[in-house]
Design brief:
The protein is of the alpha+beta class and about 180 residues long. The chain folds into two domains: about 50 residues, no CATH class; about 110 residues, Aspartate Aminotransferase, domain 1. Helix content is about 55%, strand content about 10%. The chain has six helices and four strands; from the N terminus they run ααααββαββα. Helix 1 crosses helix 2. The longest helix has 27 residues. The chain is elongated and about 70 Å long.
């Protein structure tokens, strides 16, 4: 739960049901509002219905600030775990960008194709974003966007290992295709 841990006894089923309604409504109206995910939004709605508190009350009480500070620490630990695992399992990749947010950008080792690595990663159950479709101009080194917000540290370490295997498999495939006349 996000707020009111002791004062708002909600079942997981209730919260999941309410967040599902919000998620479907967002999709139906084409909403791109992403300040809070549907689960957090549902919890705020249920807190309001239960306690009569508004978002302003949550801010004034310090609950929202406490939540943000806790999540920053959690996301920082997850980012650090992913960066350390990438340094261990995929030292040829370079992590780019600032140490903030919920995603990492990694430049792939030379000779890697984003699409091949993304396909090999997907085959191993790892979802990555290719950078090439997001570039304003073509070119630049091959790179991937990795999200880490929802995975605990151990899963991020496992994901980095699997991503390293995907990179090596894509490199081996490219090398073998280059040899075929």
């Amino acid at each position: 739960m996000l707020f009111y841990r002791a004062a708002l006894p909600l079942s997981h089923k209730t919260l999941t049901f309410a967040s599902g309604i919000i998620r479907r409504h967002r999709k139906a109206i084409g909403s791109r509002w992403r300040k809070l995910n549907p689960r957090q939004q549902a919890l705020m709605v249920l807190a309001y219905l239960r306690k009569g508190d508004t978002f302003a009350d949550l801010i004034a009480s310090g609950s929202y600030d406490h939540h943000l500070r806790r999540m920053r620490r959690r996301y920082r630990a997850r980012r650090d775990a992913l960066v350390n695992a990438l340094n261990r399992w995929l030292p040829a990749a370079r992590v780019r960008g600032v140490s903030a947010g919920l995603h990492l950008l990694i430049e792939l080792p030379p000779g890697c194709a984003e699409a091949d690595v993304a396909a090999a990663a997907a085959a191993r159950g790892i979802a990555v974003g290719q950078v090439a479709p997001m570039r304003a101009a073509p070119g630049g080194p091959p790179a991937l966007v990795l999200g880490y917000a929802r995975l605990p540290e151990q899963h991020l370490t496992d994901a980095a290992r699997l991503l390293a295997h995907a990179v090596h498999a894509a490199q081996a495939r490219a090398t073998s295709q280059a040899r075929v006349p």
